[in-house]
Amino acid sequence: MSDRIMELVGTFAQQKPGDPGDPARRDNLYDPRADALRGTQHVRARTSSSVLQAQKLHPAVVMLGVVGAGIVVALGRPKGGRR
């Protein structure tokens, strides 16, 4: 079912309007394209992300950050729990 949805929506979402695409470049599942061209859209892809960098942190550093954030929240609360 997901293949059918991607067939209907994928081309529309990934291709510029009015660009029928090159029939020779339609399928490269089993073999690389001979021309090795990129798509027709001009997009900027990031080489990294903050989530990736957070996943690469040592678990002790993450735990220290969580504990530190908890301390900051606890110290920032007014006494008595009401304002």
Tally of individual helices: 3
State the total count of DSSP E strands: 0
Strand content: under 5%
Radius of gyration: 24 Å
Global outline: elongated
Q: What's the SSE pattern?
A: HHH
Global mean pLDDT: 78
Approximate helicity band: 40-55%
Largest sheet: none
| pLDDT < 50 runs, ≥5 residues | none
Structural class: mainly alpha
Spatial gap, N to C terminus: 54 Å
Topology record:
Layout: H1 2-14, H2 50-55, H3 59-76
What does this structure look like?
Helices cover 45% and strands 0% of the residues. The chain is mainly alpha-helical. The longest helix has 18 residues, at 59-76. The N and C termini lie far apart (54 Å). 0% of the residues are buried.
Keywords:
mainly alpha; 0% strand
Q: What can be said about this structure in brief?
A:
The chain is an all-alpha fold. The protein has helices at residues 2-14, 50-55, 59-76.
